[in-house]
Amino acid sequence: MTEEPQEHDSEEIAAKSAVNAGPGAPRQNALRLVAAALILRGAEVLICQRRPDQPMALQWEFPGGKLEPGESPEAALKRELEEELGITATVGPRVTHIRHNYRHGGAVDLQFFAVYEFEGEIENRIFHEVKWVRLEDLPSYDFLAADRGLIRDLAQGKLL
């Protein structure tokens, strides 16, 4: 059964995908494909805070990033977790799939995957802060607006 992505309208996700595209990348009105990780440790999940110099400064998000051409979401996520956190992850099942449309055209397609196992020690390579948080405590953090529905579902035990 194929899960239909949830639809959202969000300026924040446009800026996130522009950051993930890298410096000098053109802003396109095309669909951007993004994979993100719910790295789990018992009843806790790893969350990451954006740097003060980024769009949506100091808001929280999950690690991950844009798929490269020809790359599967799982391969992209494995690469991104190595780049961002210095870990070699075993990418688990897809937890949810969300599509965000933004006002200036285009959209981003977000796939969130569970990660229950990884090798190496988590090293903060690009974020302002990373921390383990209990799932029920997620709503007390200032997450990107695009993630708030997911945050509510995770806190209520609906997805994991």
How would you portray this structure in words?
With 160 residues, this protein is an alpha+beta fold. It is 20% helix and 37% strand. Strands 1, 2, 3, 4, 5, 6, 7 and 8 form an 8-stranded mixed beta sheet that branches. The longest helix is centred in the middle third of the chain and has 13 residues, at 73-85. It is globular and about 40 Å long. One of its GO terms (molecular function) is hydrolase activity. Its cofactor is Mg(2+).
How is this structure best summarized?
Its EC number is 3.6.1.55. The protein has 3 helices and 8 strands; from the N terminus they run E-H-E-E-E-E-H-E-E-E-H.
Q: Name the structural class.
A: alpha+beta
Question: What is the average per-residue confidence, as pLDDT, rounded to a whole number?
Answer: 85
Q: How many β strands by DSSP?
A: 8
Question: What gross morphology would you assign?
Answer: globular
* H/I helix tally: 3
Considering DSSP H and I runs of 4 or more, what fraction of the residues is helical?
10-25%
Q: For the CA atoms, what is the radius of gyration?
A: 15 Å
Pfam families: NUDIX
EC number: 3.6.1.55
Protein name: 8-oxo-dGTP diphosphatase
GO molecular function: hydrolase activity
